Amino acid sequence: MAQSGDFFEAGEFLFSVAIIIEDLDFSEALKLYNLVIEFYKKQIIDYKLQARLHEIAELYLKIAEISMEKFRDRKSEKKNIQSSIKFLKQETSLLEGFNETRKLSQNYQNIAELYSKASDFKNAIKFYEKVINFSKINHFYDLLSFSYHQICASYEEIDDYSKAQDIILEEVDFFLSVVSVLEEKNENLPLAQVYQILKNLYKTLDDDDQYTNFSKREAGAYIDLAETIEKKAENYHKIARYYRGAGLCYREIKHNLIECASCFILAGNFSEKTEDYGRAAMNFFDGANVFKELNNLELAYKHFIKAGDNYWKVGSINESTESYLNGYDTVVEGN
Hints:
This protein is mostly helical. Helix content is 84%, strand content 0%. Among the domains are: 1-91, no CATH class; 96-185, Tetratricopeptide repeat domain (Serine Threonine Protein Phosphatase 5, Tetratricopeptide repeat, Alpha Horseshoe), CATH 1.25.40.10. It has helices at 7-21, 26-50, 53-71, 74-95, 101-117, 121-138, 141-157, 161-185, 188-204, 208-228, 236-253, 257-273, 277-293, 297-313, 317-334.
């Protein structure tokens, strides 16, 4: 591979070999890791000629990780992280001239994560703030939530706990304003995502009432999605996923247990229609447990047996047996 000029593949192959022989002869493994680094460096030279900036950044990061994890060389790790940041910034400068907002936000996030890895938390915060600014404009709620969380963690790393708390409250305020807009438009899919974010934020703040409130609202959004989507075969998997999401929300807060069990059963029914028997079994089993908790032993028994039947269809003998035994125990308990 190396002779043909494919230094990356040669490095990846040697890395796999080194991992295998580490337990047998660590000193020999280290020699191989040094060769891996040399191959990666040769590949970087080739990538520079092709202006493949992102790939160069990734290889510098790989070298940084090997330097620290295998050689405990913190100095080399930081040096290669800085090189990775340098090329990511070059790529970012190019992206700023194009309409690549998602990619640009992800690049800012990657740079921020590298600064965090190098314990440069002030620069990490600076780039996470860039992610937030772009994500607010473009409604990248997943990147927003992650970046807020990482800024909070960065402030905690530099012992600024007051600022960390302020960041959480700022995030809550922002997503509450988003909820108002989405509820007016009745956009259930992004609403479910934002409800989940707020639920987790209130859990962090130990606000049990709001945590329960937004868990229920998240469940409601999933149910609305499941009920409004057209009931045709190509949508059954998606419908099952929405009902299961609602069931998990209710189960997590131990509220609305009848609705919780019903959602699991509906998810199981739609999974069964797609012949996804493993997921059907899981949903029937979860629903049966909730019915048992509600002391509805007849429905608990019925769905433990359905879980067992579906597990049997996919060859999960242990899970099938467990389901049947749970069904039997439920009958005994009822008598």
